[in-house]
Amino acid sequence: MLLSSFPHQQRITNTLQKSLEAGKISHANLFIGADENEMETMAAAFAQILYCQNPPSRSPQSGLPTDFCGECHNCQLIAQKKHPSVQWIYPESKIRVITTDQIRKLIQSSQLKSLSSNYDINILCSADRLNIQAANAFLKTLEEPVPGKIFILLTRDPEKIIPTILSRCRRFIFEGINRPVIDSSTANWLSSFAQIAVASQGRLLSRYTLLDSLLGQLAIQQNIIETELKAQSPLSKYTEAEESSRERWEKELQASVSSEYRRCRANLLSALELWLRDIWLTKINNSFSELSYFPDLQNHTEAIAAHLSEEQALQNLKIVNKTFKILDTNVQESLALEVFLLKLSF
Ligand SMILES: [Zn+2]
């Protein structure tokens, strides 16, 4: 049972084994996760199972192996990325994209190979880096499945993959290991924000209620930060100090308040981004994803997902990403956040 070497990804290994047992292997698979190495190892494991010469278990129903030994010639070749029927595609060129040329070569070589072996496995790493022409060329191969030809796409940013490819893939969502920790005050705020969003039913006026909620929470955090850092500053300890020292401390205090505030603001927006991601996941899965970050917000998430299109849910994620970048420049915060909330779809 070498699949058991992924203790954090039990949900995925179970699904994989179930489909092998039933003999139902999808020709297009998409791995969505935070750790590229882990996804690559899992993709290799998938190929190793199909090619293992000494599988430790086999399904009586489908006759397919359900695990791999890790030691036979094929298992080792695949682990070293040298197996002739398992191709690895990485972004190339200066701007790190997967080009049309790479896709064309992949299609041609896999046409030859599928004649000589049972499976032809193609693993596309950083599949979100397919340029648009390459994506369209690739889409054609996904639309015409060939028996034995299997694609595994790996990505950390599924929102950057064109929807027509996304919808054709069976999706495997990995447990995230780099998830940020959301403090309880932020979680409480998000819950009330979500409630307003649901009640707003897309009305423009409610956007300003959402904006008030966001700015209100930021003001609360700013206050806490100021009070805490002021208490730690020498300003409050040495009230009789010279004017020049006091000026310097004052400047230091302002700088640390501002950097701490930026950190908190980024946390708050990250929480909002994670919730928008939950909505998107719910939309593309047609049901609340068990891997959602905020299980407590299931009702709100489902309510919003129900009246958004997949495109709108995806667009929300792009908008929050853009806002992160804008806030990093010296733009006026309240204006940037107002534009942000007006653009979101709820
Ligand atoms: Zn083996």
Helix/strand structural class: alpha/beta
How far from one another are the termini? 45 Å
- Share of helix, binned: 55-70%
The CATH class label of the largest domain is Alpha Beta
- The amount of beta strand, in percent, is 5-15%
Q: What number of domains?
A: 2
pLDDT < 50 runs, ≥5 residues: none
Look at the structure and name the CATH superfamily of the largest domain: P-loop containing nucleotide triphosphate hydrolases
Number of strands: 5
Structural account:
This protein has 13 helices and 5 strands. The protein is an alpha/beta fold and 346 residues long. The chain has 2 domains: 2-173, Rossmann fold, CATH 3.40.50; 184-343, no CATH class. Strands 2-3-4-1-5 form a 5-stranded parallel β-sheet, with helices on both faces. Helix 5 links the parallel strand 3 (120-124) and strand 4. The longest helix has 43 residues, at 243-285. Bound molecules: zinc ion (ZN). Zinc ion binds next to helix 3.
Topology:
Layout: H1 10-22, E1 28-32, H2 36-51, H3 73-79, E2 86-89, H4 100-116, E3 120-124, H5 132-143, E4 149-155, H6 163-166, E5 170-173, H7 184-200, H8 204-232, H9 234-237, H10 243-285, H11 298-306, H12 310-328, H13 333-343
Parallel strand pairs: 1-4, 1-5, 2-3, 3-4
This protein binds zinc ion.
Zinc ion binds at residues 52-54, 68-69, 71-72, 74-75.
